[in-house]
Amino acid sequence: MTSRSTLTAWLAGLDGARLARVLMAREDAVALPEPRSMGELAERLQRPGSVALALPRLPLPCLQVAETLAALGTLSRGALAKALGATARSAARELDVALETLADHALVWPDGAGGLRMAAPLRQAWDAPLGLDAPLAEVLEGVTSEALRGMLVALGIKPPGTRQQRAAAVLEHHGDPERVASLIEKAPSAARKLLERRARSAPRRTDFIVFGAPPADSQPGARWALDRGLLVRDRHGHGTDRMPAEVALALRGPDWHAPFEPVPPAMALVSVAVVEVNREAAAAATAFAAHAASVLSVCSTAPPARLKSGGIGARELGRTGKAAHAVDVVVRIALESAYSVGLLATDGPRVTPTKAYDAWAAQEPAAQFAVLLQAWWNLPLTPSQARDEDDKALPALAGAPPCDGCLQARGGLLAAAARLPEGRGARVATDLGPLVAWHRPLAHPSFQDETPFATAVREAELLGVIARGSLSPLGAALLAGGAEELATECRRLLPQATGTARLGSDLTAVVGGTPSALLAELLDATADRETSGTASVWRFSANSIRRALDAGRTPDEVSAELAAIAAGSLPQSLSYLIADAARRHGRVRIAPAACVIHGDEPALLAELAAHRGLAPLGLRQLAPTVLVSAAAPDQTLAALRDQGYAPVTEAADGTVRIEKVPPRRAAAIPTPRKTSTKAGTGRAAHRPAEASAVVDPHTLAARLLNAPPTAPEPDPFGTPGVPFGTDTEEIVAGYAKQLTYTDVRQLGHALDAGTAITVEYVAASGSRTVRTLSRLELDPPHLEAWCHLRDAERVFTLSRIHGVMPA
């Protein structure tokens, strides 16, 4: 029986609750359109891409069990325990836990005949599982009948007549470990040493011949081993010699066991109170939320420039951090998180907020933080990594390739912290690093980490996910995966936005906690921010009040708005500052002409004409209250302000021109194009399929258990009668002959719903690539799409698409 058929039968025998666990663990396999049968579900679960998504989420014992099965093939539960050395009661219990986890992910399951079967793609997950080469049957595939005859003669076995019989005779002989061990004991010393060395080292595989290199059988003892099939020459007598897995296992002996580490590494723990964890998590989250809001506010008023090569360079990051009073790590995490959820977008040479940012900025700090925290959790990169392996500064938002290992490092960190005993935490948070390697062996530690996964730990502490060396409620909510649960914890831990400020006689405004959007906007317009965080400080000055007046506010409005946030009267020093700035504001006016300066005070105009610092403007006095400048209005305005004056500009009708500039917003991301067939294809334009709502796993499990066990395959000639749901699926099936029924359905759904899809594409040259495509448009026999691999529009031939996966 094939692995798919045994998987289908096993799935069909599960109860609803157990099947729902499988569906929740392998969400990509139940992506829209939902599978209609157990057979279709089994096919999706066996996809190489789907298996590759599931493997990195597994802890070390599960990977070790899977690797053992990949190396040794189908085994019984007892044979597997013996191979792993897990015969003791405690180890056997941990083995059952690992097998249960693998079954929940539909990677290993019982076949009904006492054996454990595994998903077929798992065999390709390791180049040499357990350091073993392929089984003897596979290694002998390229060996000629005459070479097999020579092996049998050397082994003292009378060769049968056919090649198949000769291969079976070699397999029978080498399948007995005791017989192989006895044979090697009688081998010459050189051959025995060579074989023992090869049995304990990973196989060496080459697919080419190195000219001038010494032949493989020139090694002492190699010829003896090759003659008896203990080593087998690849490529019909050329290339490297291979040691079949059966021979290597016989040489390793009956006492050898595959590695199995069912218990995570020990670490020093200390007592920690829940209230302390909550307090520290709340403080970290509140500080990050305030700094992140400040960073994005700076991006709104002064959008950072992009490098020609892409991304935001160190200089712009430093400028943004200085203006927001935030360290580089916070700036990078805030930018990457906001960009990933569409709060920021590229707008020509700059990165600017989108309209979504305005809605986000109006929310409470808890809601703002929940958005950024969820975005950080899903980031396929390490946002705070500031330097590469050559110690060169890395730009932010540079479009780095997705790193699944970075995602798994975060998941492993939280999984490790979640398994700590209640009321206990790591003595130092970075001590969690070795546990991450056990919970997520395929995670990628950053090359700049002094201790394992120190960067991931630092980011988690900064956001309040890890506190006092243990998992905080925020981290627990992220692990649970519920958006509502995360929002609830954020509201519980983070204080509400502050709408008032304490205005001091030293011309400062102090805000405890996170200022509301309206408060921050008012203070940013009338004062200069000095610090941000759990408490923020602004300072008023003549220039800051002048900015507010330039933007169109009147002195009375400034006083009234500041008095409202102060919940009382203004300090006398601030009232004097506003009055003084208002008195000086507009005493000099600049009119467009090229350009004219006029005012009501002849003495002030004479002062301007005689000012040495304004000499580059070429000022000439035409009348006691009129000057003319040789510079443009904007240059004249800037020069006067640089010298401490407070001019205003006039429109052509003589009214004061308000200088308030609307915030720059990036254009919204274009909506994916609707797919359509073009004229001349001989097919009717397909009708879009309605996207179904998200289905509860238990509901889908019940539906699948009541469905037929297998799914129909598409007719290879595209004739009527195939149960496709839409015209699009019928068109795709007529051209994409390499796709299965399930693949056709998923590609058709992506076309109809306007969603992205991942495909395996075989070019005319024969090279295979995996590409994520969006903005799909069907033009049989081609598919036009935006290719994320090439970052450009591309045309694909439907018949060359060999596999489909949800993006």
Describe the 3D structure.
By secondary structure, this protein is α+β, with helices and mostly antiparallel strands. The protein has six domains: 3-126, no CATH class; 136-243, no CATH class; 271-493, no CATH class; 502-584, no CATH class; 589-649; 725-806, SH3 type barrels (Roll). It is built from 33 helices and 25 strands. The strands form eight sheets. A five-stranded mixed β-sheet has the order 18-19-17-16-20, covered by helices on one side. It has a five-stranded antiparallel β-sheet with strand order 24-23-22-21-25, covered by helices on one side. The longest helix is centred in the middle third of the chain and has 28 residues, at 274-301. It is elongated, with a radius of gyration of 35 Å.
Number of strands: 25
Global Rg: 35 Å
Shape verdict: elongated
Q: How much helicity do the residues have?
A: 40-55%
Give the domain tally. 6
* Overall mean pLDDT: 87
Strand content: 5-15%
Spatial order of strands in the largest sheet:
18-19-17-16-20
Largest sheet: 5 strands, mixed
Low-confidence stretches: 206-216, 669-693, 711-722
Q: Count of helical segments?
A: 33
Based on helices, strands and strand pairing, what is the structural class?
alpha+beta
How far do the termini sit from each other?
A: 31 Å
